[in-house]
């Protein structure tokens, strides 16, 4: 588990493509590896990956085809910047929100506007994720724990302070940049929980997208009339 508080920005040194997956070598930048061992989990732009080899100021991780297809990793190349966060320890301060390191989809930055010293970003999420994104709710963008400030359909607004931009890959964002999205884990489990016993069946109470609508779930569960 992670908190979405980025510890360092690293970069990809090498990429080795295999039949259906890849191995990448990471330059970890300022990330402290003194307590990292083989098999440990580190989040890379919000994707939880396992350390398979340690070397000077870095390490290797394997990326499965499933991860490549579900994240922005399909477009990575050498030199690509990476937000890095080591797995949370029991004694760690919980500074962000619960981040699992499992990407739900890829969003696209559709506008960037300077607002004084801050910067406003609008990001378009995949339509199927829109129901899970709430105004003033938590969302992970490339592994960064952030708060949505406004919603417009499947698009949402972020207002980011200079410190966050300077300490993360957000300093490289441009209109059109693809970012990894992870919705708030509470929203994901709440929808499943509201299905009740019907969760065990694959063909009941679903809309055209294959899922029961959130409003139908809330109404059937007595939250709305």
Automatic annotation (TrEMBL):
Pfam families, per the entry: Lum_binding
User: What's its top-level EC category?
Assistant: transferase
The EC number on file is 2.5.1.9
Q: Specify the superkingdom.
A: Bacteria
Keyword terms, alphabetized: Repeat, Riboflavin biosynthesis, Transferase
Known catalysed reaction(s)? 2 6,7-dimethyl-8-(1-D-ribityl)lumazine + H(+) = 5-amino-6-(D-ribitylamino)uracil + riboflavin
InterPro entries (alphabetical): ATP_synth_asu-like_sf, Lumazine-bd, Lumazine-bd_dom, Riboflavin_synthase-like_b-brl
Q: In which pathway does it act?
A: Cofactor biosynthesis; riboflavin biosynthesis; riboflavin from 2-hydroxy-3-oxobutyl phosphate and 5-amino-6-(D-ribitylamino)uracil: step 2/2
Instruction: Describe the location of the Lumazine-binding domain by residue ranges.
Output: 1-97, 98-194
Lumazine-binding repeat start and end residues: 1-97, 98-194
Matching entries from SUPFAM superfamilies are given as: Riboflavin synthase domain-like
NCBIfam families tied to this protein: PRK09289.1, PRK13020.1, ribE
Q: Extract the PANTHER family matched here.
A: RIBOFLAVIN SYNTHASE, RIBOFLAVIN SYNTHASE ALPHA CHAIN
Q: What does this protein do?
A: Catalyzes the dismutation of two molecules of 6,7-dimethyl-8-ribityllumazine, resulting in the formation of riboflavin and 5-amino-6-(D-ribitylamino)uracil.
What is the name of this protein? Riboflavin synthase
**Species annotation:** Psychromonas marina
- Gene designation per UniProt: ribE
């Amino acid at each position: 588990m992670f908190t979405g508080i980025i510890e360092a920005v690293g970069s990809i040194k090498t990429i080795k493509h295999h039949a259906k997956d890849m191995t990448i070598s990471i330059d970890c930048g300022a990330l402290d590896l003194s307590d990292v061992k083989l098999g440990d989990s580190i989040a890379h732009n919000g994707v939880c990956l396992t350390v398979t080899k340690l070397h000077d100021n870095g390490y290797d991780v394997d990326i499965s085809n499933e991860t490549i297809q579900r994240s922005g990793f399909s477009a990575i190349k050498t030199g690509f910047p990476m937000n890095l966060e080591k797995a949370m320890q029991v004694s760690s301060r919980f500074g962000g929100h619960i981040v699992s390191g499992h990407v739900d989809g890829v969003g696209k930055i559709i506008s960037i506007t300077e607002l004084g010293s801050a910067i406003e970003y609008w990001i378009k999420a995949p339509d199927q994720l829109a129901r899970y994104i709430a105004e003033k709710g938590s969302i992970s963008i490339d592994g960064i724990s952030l708060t949505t400030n406004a919603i417009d359909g499947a698009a949402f607004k972020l207002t980011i302070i200079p410190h966050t931009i300077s300490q993360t890959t957000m300093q490289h964002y441009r209109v059109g940049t693809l970012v990894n999205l992870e919705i708030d884990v509470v929203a994901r489990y709440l929808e499943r929980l509201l299905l009740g016993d019907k969760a065990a069946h694959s063909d009941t109470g679903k809309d055209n997208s294959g899922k029961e609508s959130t409003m139908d779930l809330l109404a059937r569960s007595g939250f709305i009339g």
